Amino acid sequence: MLALLGSILIGLTIFILYMRSLPSLATWHTTILENEFTEYSNVKDFDDYLALEKRLYAELDHEVNDNILPSEKNRIHRYTKNSLSDPRRWEHAWNQSFELTVENPKMGVLLLHGMSDSPYSLHTQAEYLHQRGVWVVSMRLPGHGTIPSGLRDVKWEEMAAIVKIGMKRLNDKLGNKPIHIMGYSTGAPLALNYTLLALDDPTLTVPQSLIFYSPAVGVSRAAPLAIWQSRMGYFFGLPKLEWNSIQPEYDPFKYGSFAVNAGDQVYRLCNQVQKQLDAYLSDGQDKPPLPPILSFASMVDATVNVNDTVNKLYKRLPQGEHSLVLFDINHDFIAENLVKRQILASLDTLRKTPQNVDYTFDLITDLNSTDGSVSVIRNGEMIQNLPYQWPKGLYSLSHLAIPVTPDDPLYGDENAPKSPGIKLGRLALYGENGVLETSSLLRQRWNPFHTYIKQRVLEFMALE
Hints:
With 464 residues, the protein is an alpha/beta fold.
């Protein structure tokens, strides 16, 4: 009995110390915005959604931006008015849904951003597609683009409802012209969910193709357990437990903090897509073919499971013009023995050309290169040398980097145009821990091979 009581006391002490060690919750973690879209919102179409967003951002200003505490204000803080991270420094409201129209469009494209992101993450793609005569609709997913607390209660079904609204808008405007869906991270399973529904439902428009960046097909195996942490926090009145991370909010268009519920919703969405694929494949030849899928991903990704992209999506695809493009790491770092052994083993597995599959596998790598240039190895054979090299000191891409051009003012390299506010893409910071306001800034933010991806996308969409 004494041993049991002692163990309980030690456990409680450790738990109390852990709770005290967590950062304090701020206004943007605890405020709930009433004008956010939910399953109960009276929103029937794109115009209704824009009207609701207008009320939502007015509420954001009134409840958060006008009321944060003096102790919460900071020169690089997102919710501090006129700070370097204030989104209003940018000419366009990239945190909100937007539409780029064109007379006599060639086609339409729906853009879907990732979890904790905003429409900014695919704004480069929106602009270059629009310049080529494409009608663009980019949807802000519920819970995003405002304050991190929006991720505490959002449901994947609510995000899926927004996909239908965006596709209906394009269908209404374009008639019988082709419509594509481009999804980044969580945007990919949302696109797959819609597409598999549309193959069964004649009232929905089947997209002409799907284009994915860092697709979230699978997440951590621990994901199903994480939600219990959030439920304990709610039950015991410990709101900090509802968060995986509580971070400073210095990025104008992406949350630093991440709610446990957000990860759980991605897990649930991925499971739903697998069930839909099961049903689709079990029907054999009775269903229309899946549209072609083109995906780009880094072989090392701390956010999603790249092996699941291969095994749970591409290896399951029926015959079609599908392509998977994986970016290897910089082999200079392997040669210098700086890469962890378990990472090397994972990379070796991903580099192997799959057998008896119905898709094209392109590996972008400097493996065996004599001059540092990268090549395209397609299904095991080198088919093309590319005019790119790894920038000095860069050992890999990242989940964040895949869709971002080097000349992005916010996330790009040192040669990018001047940012209207903070610049996050190229900071080489050395010193002691616990000194700076920011954190995790050394994760790669831009893609040195972006021009190659752009070319592949334009060819895939028959725009080049």
